[in-house]
Fold DNA-directed DNA polymerase.
Amino acid sequence: MTDIAQDMPWLKRAWQTVQSRVAEDRLPHALILAGERGVGKRAWANAVAGLLLCEKPLNRESGQPIACGHCKQCELFAASSHPDVRVYAPEKSRMVKVDQIRALSSFAVASPQVAHHKVAIIDRADQLNINAANALLKTLEEPLPDVTLILLQESGRPLLPTVRSRCQTLTIPVPGNEDANRWLATRVQELAEDARPGADVLSKALMLSGNAPRLAFDYATGDFIGLRDAALERFKEFMKSRIPVGEAAKAFKALGLEDTLWLFETWAADLARLIAGGTPQDTDASDMLEFLAKTNPPWRAHELLDMVKESRAAGVYNASPELEASRLLIEWQKLMPVKRPAARAAVAR
């Protein structure tokens, strides 16, 4: 099995921290891994799980152990059929529910079935509802030697302080252009020739993902870019008062709530950057955002970011992407300069 840091160099620091702790038998019972969407948090968690389950890790003496890839545990894990690994992720409600955490707790106290260790991964631990987070505290407060919990957190999404205080936190950075491009190009070459996106699509995918390579791959090989371009065009038309808000909001419906809010969050963050004299991430929207940055104070951009957070919280109750887009669009249009009525022509004497 290859070293995850060779495939994704930006994971190296967090990965080597775990390697050294495993070699010294000092791995914490619970880890939080924080990073932007699409930087490889789940790949890192899988590498850690494989290492902890492996019967005969390689390179342990050097302090940089990796899973052997050949033992029974590695084969079961590679086949996604290992009974001592469980993954808990948001369900239809977009939240990790208390029933899932109760299942995790039962899994944690049970004996391993075929390995010497168990691993539980909570993908998007920042999406734990309050009851689930409180239930998780009981497991965190009573650590067991044969189980490791890995909590994946998206940057900017909060975790309860009581949960965070009982875990060790590691952070994955966003890779630089060179590493992101190299990883993306390698993955694209693994696709059938007729399914490989062109260079312009890959470049745009990296721009939209903020250099998060796994997210960029999803964008480049899916329909996100086309849907986003249509939504941006409707957004611009609405800002110029050429179409009603309902028509503009329909373009966001196809994106779904998460991607809709992610777009509005990106645009609001870009507006804040421009007002502060920085450069935007989404260059396709830069003309409109630069125009707004000239006439609006910084607090307006942060007000829009707060509204996105409110909409994301409403997602727990299955909020409509179209309705949330409408609400945000109306607030964005308030940033446009108010046209003053033309002065009346002087009355002829």
Notes: DSSP finds 16 helices and five strands in the chain. The chain has a mean pLDDT of 92. The longest helix spans residues 256-275.
